[in-house]
Write a structure and sequence with these properties.
The chain is mainly α. The chain is built from 2 helices and no strands.
Amino acid sequence: MKNVVLNEVKKELNWKERIIIKLFTKTFTKVYNICRINIINKMIK
C-alpha cells in the first residue's frame, strides 16, 4: 500500500524532487519509525 502511494506521488514530482526523494527516503523512513515508536510509547505510559 505504501509503495503504491509513493509511486503516485513520484509521478507528480519534477526530476529535482525525485533525486531528493531518492537520497532521503531512508532518512524519512527512520524518522517516521522513530516518531511512530515514540507516539506508541507515550500512549502506553
